[in-house]
Amino acid sequence: MTILITGGAGYIGSHMVLDLLATNEKIVVLDDLSTGFTGLVPAIVPLVKGDIGDKPLVKSVIENYGVNAIMHFAAKIVVPDSMTDPLGYYLNNTAKARTLIEAAVESGIKNFIFSSTAAVYGEAGEMPVTENTPPAPVSPYGRSKLMVEWMLEDAARAYGLNAMVLRYFNVAGADHAGRSGQSTPRATHLIKTACEAATGKRNGMSVFGTDYDTPDGTCIRDYIHVSDLARAHRLSLDFMRAGGKGTVLNCAYGHGSSVMEVIKAVKQASGVDFPVSLTERRAGDPPEVVATGEKIRALLGWAPAFDDLGVIVADALAWEKQLATAALNRPV
Ligand code: UFG
After folding, report:
1. Is residue 322 in contact with ligand 1, taking CB distance under 6 Å?
2. Residue 296 CB less than 6 A away from ligand 1
3. pLDDT digit string (tens) for 90-129?
4. Is 79 near ligand 1, meaning CB less than 6 Å away?
5. Which CATH number fits domain 2-173+224-252+291-304: 3.40.50.10540, 1.10.260.40, 3.20.20.70, 3.40.50.720?
6. pTM as predicted
7. HSE on the CB side for 207, CA within 13 Å?
8. N or C terminus of the chain: which is more exposed, having fewer CB within 10 Å?
9. Does 90 participate in catalysis according to the annotation?
10. For 104-134, b where at least 16 C-beta lie within 10 A, e where not — what string?
């Protein structure tokens, strides 16, 4: 009864590892270490360096470790990069996921949990979105993920693979106990960027657009703490193991914060009044992205523990401060 976590050395995957360890699950991580860090995976967890697109490897990991469920986090996630390198994104996120799913089906895996994204909704006009809002992704990133959702839906029908699709909204924060956090360099995400500014790693930051049709003119997003997100996966697995059928679930709190509110929270938590410049809109940013989050609460009994912007920001900031000295790499 081992769970295979692809991308377990990455930001969200490593929080998943911590969550499952706390519940005494047996796990194995498969990660190509292109953006992950070995030091984010506790030493007691087996870590296989390799590619999800390498079917013989995946099948041997499944067999050797007695895997019977897969949580699939490994992916490329930078939306602007997907615009300039769409084929690279379709290879990594779509074609390799197809191979992983095939390996799962051939090995008789029952339960599969997939990291999808709010990007599948594109610029959905109506807010908040629900799982019934028609997908209309505008980036190759969003499309690369939506195609995997479709493959899983078809694989469920044809082969009986039980698949849960979790569409993440804006994931942020870090492990409350300081064991993991967002570590990749060249951050573009708002909370990470603001924490870098607060800790002097960059000289201030920019607000991309102040003329949106929102109360303070800046964009609104539904920020969800990474540990609450990890728990949503564990509850999904419990649900499926108990015979529940996989479905599509939005992972969101159901309310949003503006860019200005986030920056204010980071300044408050850090006590640093870093410089902020008001600049032009960033291409492709919808004014508001918020989901109701009702379905996941009702189906899984998911009750967030960190639904508080102040806590999310404080945890992200604490990680940012220790990142300079954190042991991100260990031999595997
Ligand atoms: N922003 C700034 N300044 C910055 C960084 C971001 O003003 O330095 C603004 C953005 O313009 C946006 C908001 O902060 O309005 C949030 O931006 P992020 O880059 O943090 O997140 P996005 O909402 O753009 O991206 C998220 C996920 C992606 C996902 C995308 C679309 O991180 O994985 O939503 O759903 F694909």
Report:
1. no
2. no
3. 999 999 999 999 999 999 999 999 999 999 999 877 889 9
4. yes
5. 3.40.50.720
6. 0.97
7. 22
8. N
9. no
10. beebebebbbbbbbbbbbbebeebbbebebe
